[in-house]
Amino acid sequence: MSELSSLKILFIGNKEGDAQQLSWLVSNIKKPAMELNSVPDANAILNQRSHAGADAILLDIDNADTEDFETLGALRSVFQSTPVVVLTDREEDLGQLAIRNGAQDYLGRGQLTAASLARSLASAIERQKGQQAAPDTSPLLESATAVLNRLPMGVVLVTASAQVLFLNEKAKNILDRNDGLVLDNNRLCRASLPSENKRLGELLQSVLGTENGESADSDFAMSVTREEADTPLTVMVAPIGTGIAGKGAVLFVSDPSEAVELSIDAICGLYGLTPAEGRLALGLTNGHKLDDLAEEWNVSMHTVRSQLRQIFRKTDTSRQSELVKLILTGPAALKAAPVI
Description:
By secondary structure, the protein is of the alpha/beta class. It is built from 13 helices and twelve strands.
């Protein structure tokens, strides 16, 4: 670690006792020398886009409120070269969650000393410098997110305690309905019914305790009842590594009642269908019957049956179920939006 002669620290927090304690601790730090300034909230410095030349920001977070983590994200976005260290009472859960949301480090208020404060701030500044020198991976991360957003199912990355780390667009839409699966104020993904929420927790513990795929896939799947829909959500849980966060899991969530978002042009291009045949294939994939489609389009049953025979011939299928499976398991099931 390179030698740091002096540091300017900005503390953001509305507890007067914290500011006084930090001032006292800073006065006892001899090397590197530190200067502490404090503000009650981040709005002013974010609006002015100025933190008065601070080398590091110390942010008070004691709740998993969306607003707190939005503040953390805004600080990291506006002051990209300045590390943020989080001060919290809940270091085990909020500290790790803060790091996954952009903080360089966290400090537990109960174990706060002059030495730990100096060490954490100096280390955060050095790590930030190292990250700035490293190749920028943000375009790659943006592309990975764009790929996940094209999947026809919800993807929810969670910790072992079901705290959400990432949602793709489909999962966000499902959770925003607050029906069956919900995202609570602590950013925990849970099922609405207590019995099903207990089952979800058991699935997480089971999948994270299984080595080398010892259990069948069915052991990690469940249905989630909804009050506003006749069909339940389906959830599959799979283990996934989350680096410094330890073990985690990914929830794959599907809504069987939703129409499949497919492109007729993509279906036609993949299987050599005409636009009319592509429209019929899409209608069948979304669960519609031949006679209903014929009536909706004001064409005869003879016409739609003739189109279906051509579809079977071109796709090398012989039943509607085979055709639907072919389309839903093929690349047409991915959204046609460009990957960034």
